[in-house]
Automatic annotation (TrEMBL):
Homotrimer. This is Chloramphenicol acetyltransferase. It catalyses: chloramphenicol + acetyl-CoA = chloramphenicol 3-acetate + CoA. One of its GO terms (biological process) is response to antibiotic. SMART domains: CAT (SM01059). SUPFAM superfamilies: CoA-dependent acyltransferases. It is an enzyme of class 2 (transferase). The active site is at H190. It comes from the Bacteria. Its EC number is 2.3.1.28. It comes from Brevibacillus formosus. Keywords: Acyltransferase, Antibiotic resistance, Transferase. The lineage of its organism: Bacteria, Bacillati, Bacillota, Bacilli, Bacillales. The gene is cat.
Length: 219
């Protein structure tokens, strides 16, 4: 996967990037409920799970906006990946631990779904933090907390404050006023994303959930 370097001298965001990275190191999170009222029964009708559908939708949103693919390369250079794939957590029921997994992305949901199923079958019983190695550098983190319908979620990352990729977390879906809602939290670094970009993410994710017929293959 190609990594495009960013020319800071000709980058319109340079002053914001330097402010929120070096002067006031700042991340922020936004939580919203995504309406999956029609998507969920359509998935059930096809015998498919919600989590891989969620991974498919968020990956499409991430790949649609450069701000969500901007990061530091392993050599320290700032840039963005041409496209990314999800690195997601899954739960081990027997000992209540979790592991991370990455799955190759495909533009066609049935193909991605089969990739997900194949990975879970092959690596799903592997314990430890990373179930499938080696993980490529062009991944972004996704997790799920399916036991609670949270109204807010925030991660506190220690270190040098140079982690720029979005962190996406879903919660337990719930019923409200005749709708099925999925809480989704997005955490971003203010150096590369503003409230406008976070809003783009949430609104685009809702569009993917609403327009499920276009990619799920149902009438």
């Amino acid at each position: 996967m190609k990594f495009q370097r960013i020319d800071l001298d000709n980058w319109s965001r340079r002053s914001y990037f330097e402010h929120y990275l070096n002067r006031v190191n700042c991340t922020f999170s936004m939580t919203a409920n995504i309406d999956i009222s029609e998507l969920l029964p359509a998935l059930r009708q096809k015998g498919m799970k919600l989590y891989p559908a969620f991974l498919f939708m968020v990956t499409n949103v991430v790949n649609a906006h450069r701000e969500f693919r901007t990061s530091f390369h392993t050599d320290g250079e700032l840039g963005y990946w041409e496209s990314m794939i999800p690195s997601y957590t899954f739960f081990h029921q027997d000992d209540q631990t979790f592991s991370t997994m990455w799955t190759e992305f495909a533009d066609e949901f049935p193909v991605f779904y089969q990739n997900y199923v194949a990975d879970m079958k092959r690596y799903g019983d592997n314990k430890g933090f990373v179930a499938k190695e080696p993980e490529p550098p062009y991944t972004f983190p996704v997790s799920c907390i399916p036991w609670v319908s949270f109204s807010g979620f925030n991660l506190n990352i220690s270190g040098d404050g140079r982690y720029l990729l979005p962190i996406i977390t879903s919660g337990k879906y719930f019923e409200q006023e005749g709708k099925t809602l999925l809480p989704v939290s997005l955490q971003v670094h203010h150096a590369v994303c503003d409230g406008y970009h976070a809003s783009l993410f949430i609104n685009d994710l809702q569009k993917w959930a609403t327009n499920y017929k276009e990619w799920l293959g149902v009438e």
